[in-house]
Amino acid sequence: MATIKDSVHDHIEVGGVAAALLDTEPVQRLRHIKQLGTVHLVYPSANHTRFEHSLGVYHLADRALAHLGIEGSQAERIRAAALLHDVGHGPYSHNVETVTQRHTGKYHDEVHELLAAGEVGDVLRDHDLDPARVADLVAGEGQYGQLVSGELDVDRMDYLVRDAHHTGVPYGTIDHERLVRELAFVDGELVLREGNVQTAESLLLARALMNPTVYQHHVARISKAMLRQAAERLLDRTGTTPAELRRMDDHDLLVALRTTPETAAVAARLRTRDLYKRAVWAELDAVPEDVLDADFDTLRDLEAGIASRADLSPEGVILDVPDRPSMTESTSRVMVGGEMRQLGKQSPLVSALRTAGEQQWRLGVYVPEESTDRVGQVAVDVLDLDVDGAPVSDVRPGVTATLDEFTGS
Known about the structure:
With 409 residues, this protein is an alpha+beta fold. It is built from 22 helices and nine strands. The longest helix has 20 residues. The relative contact order is 0.11.
């Protein structure tokens, strides 16, 4: 049994298969992948890693198993999945996942090959655990996969508290101890027990508040987009393969970018925080449907069109179109009056948070600072945006909703 001091959960005791997995290379690699990617360029203390987050998820999973009365091999499989749930992440976490997924067809939670091979697979088999069944849990499959990857998963409970702690913002505070304690399985569904609508709402609200202030902060989005563009160029113009990129850590990727002539300039900008600026920052209702639904190649063509009309190189323009606003947590299930209900149908808060998410959504066009003025109007024309006034329109970060929406009156 190993005892590890953690900044969020205090002391974490690691035993069994998890203790044996702890020193394997795929788990130790997570020490070199930042949990929040480029967010440290906004919040300098956000340097925590996927390694400590994985320990936190393991800890909360272990607590949940005790409350749920799950023991034996099933419990060990879940503990292993909790510790291993992020080993599929590429460098800078989600920042370049769209790049690796487009080339490999795999997201970070598709880890069957990773868990079956090498020392991780050996450790799992030595503990009489089937790597394929552990990988299924990482992907959220089956009844118990909901604990690791679902609307009420321990992954979300840890990263909200941990990200708030390391960024210093107050919005991610949730009562994770109560959340873990009130979990139950009803007809195969993971739910919160009776009297916990507000507990579920707290998880939803924390995520909604962290989104604009941390996860979708415009500086974090710009730096992420620059890193993503550089990673694409690394694959297109060097011998680096998508599989190699996926298994890099943050340091590996930075070195590769800095030592490759085609990406060295972007690497220097990221290193010195000399980031592109917003030429366009457009609201959801200003963006045509065909731009919202555009695929990768279409977005690159639009970038090239903007760059050509603005007399810039194609690399000098980045078009950033986020996914449409969504709130998967609203499908969390809570027990109300002895019935299992979706939070979205029970809580008036959900409607307000959906409205806020739509109001905060922005399409971005990023260019070097000296080019913002001339690129802004060009991008509006090329993208056929319905912008009323200046191309750059910002709002104070945070959830904006009326009292009527919160009370349901």
